């Protein structure tokens, strides 16, 4: 079943900047999709349109087959923007995490269960009683993600979820996204970072700086098309640049590359 079906989306800001121009996108349930493009390509705007945070000037977004009903969308879909303040507005982090499920009429015990479980998963246990404005920038981003997760969405749209996040927390977040995908949650991640894409997506919608889709396809096909990426002002992943032309099966990540070198008996270089 389709999770999100967008047709001919168009959005211009009040100053007439055309940020999204005629985008079609169909995202199946359980898929992991990246919105990849350079700065200013329209990724955040498209993510907000796909997540019903803003209404398009043209075109339409439908969810789960047919519905456009706002309550259904709110209960089954979470969007994480780049601004943690959109999610952190209560006196304590615990109340911010509890806000979504409480809005969905979960009872007190269920709300507490969700808050504890997500806080544990994102290493926020020690921060639950703090006011959110006392958290560091990275902690605020984790708390915002946690508040998007306590509604237990079927579809999660994330705008640059690991930008400005340290290595340990990046791993925590990427492992969590793997677990959510394994549980069947549909993931849409916007990023300008080609290095991140193999970790979060099986399919890519590639945007160019005109707010249109330049190409779409499986992650491997898009990330190994180095001319296409450069035409969109993106740098191909470093490991692709290193292995391009040296093997038919170009690895997309350093871990893939290490496995290939081991398999080829090149585990040490004299
Ligand atoms: N509030 C706004 N008013 C006017 N123009 C805007 C506004 N927000 C974004 N834009 C413009 O819309 C275009 C798309 O912006 P958007 O933030 O969607 O791009 P992006 O691909 O997410 O960029 P980045 O990678 O830098 O976050 C850009 O040209 C930007 O300058």
From TrEMBL:
InterPro entries for the chain: AAA+_ATPase (IPR003593), ABC_transporter-like_ATP-bd (IPR003439), ABC_transporter-like_CS (IPR017871), ABC_transpr_CbiO/EcfA_su (IPR015856), ECF_ABC_transporter_ATP-bd (IPR050095), P-loop_NTPase (IPR027417)
* GO CC terms in record: ATP-binding cassette (ABC) transporter complex
**Domain ABC transporter as annotated: residue spans:** 4-234
Question: Out of the domains of life, which is the source?
Answer: Archaea
Q: Where in the cell is it found?
A: Cell membrane
Q: Please give the CDD domains that the UniProt record associates with this protein.
A: ABC_cobalt_CbiO_domain1
Q: Does the keyword Membrane apply?
A: yes
Q: Does the keyword ATP-binding apply?
A: yes
**In the record, what terms sit under GO molecular function?**
ATP binding; ATP hydrolysis activity; ATPase-coupled transmembrane transporter activity
User: Any idea which UniProt keywords this protein has?
Assistant: ATP-binding, Membrane, Nucleotide-binding, Transport
Q: What is its main location?
A: membrane
**Membrane topology field:** Peripheral membrane protein
SUPFAM superfamilies, per database record: P-loop containing nucleoside triphosphate hydrolases
As for what it does, the entry says: Probably part of an ABC transporter complex. Responsible for energy coupling to the transport system.
The record's comment on protein family reads: Belongs to the ABC transporter superfamily.
| Record's protein name | Cobalt ABC transporter ATP-binding protein
């Amino acid at each position: 079943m389709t999770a999100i079906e967008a047709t001919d989306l168009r959005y211009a800001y009040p100053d007439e900047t055309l940020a999204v121009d005629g985008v079609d996108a169909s995202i199946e349930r359980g898929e992991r999709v990246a919105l990849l493009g350079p700065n200013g390509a329209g990724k955040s705007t498209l993510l907000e349109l796909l997540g019903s945070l803003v209404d398009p000037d043209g075109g339409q977004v439908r969810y789960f087959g047919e519905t456009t009903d706002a309550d259904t969308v709110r209960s089954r879909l979470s969007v994480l923007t780049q601004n943690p303040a959109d999610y952190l507005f209560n006196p304590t982090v615990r109340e911010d995490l509890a806000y979504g499920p409480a809005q969905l009429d979960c009872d007190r015990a269920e709300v507490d269960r969700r808050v504890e479980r997500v806080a544990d998963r994102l290493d926020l246990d020690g921060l639950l009683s703090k006011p959110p404005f006392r958290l560091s920038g990275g902690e605020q981003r984790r708390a915002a993600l946690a508040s998007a997760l306590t509604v237990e969405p079927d579809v999660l749209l994330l705008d640059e979820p690991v930008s400005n996040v340290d290595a340990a927390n990046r791993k925590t977040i990427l492992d969590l996204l793997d677990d959510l995908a394994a549980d069947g949650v549909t993931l849409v991640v916007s990023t300008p970072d080609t290095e991140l894409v193999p970790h979060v997506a099986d399919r890519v919608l590639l945007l160019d700086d005109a707010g249109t889709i330049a190409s779409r396809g499986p992650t491997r096909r898009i990330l190994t098309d180095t001319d296409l990426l450069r035409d969109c002002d993106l740098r191909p992943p470093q490991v692709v640049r290193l292995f391009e032309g040296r093997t038919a099966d170009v690895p997309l990540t350093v871990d893939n590359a290490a496995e290939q070198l081991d398999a080829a008996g090149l585990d040490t270089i004299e």
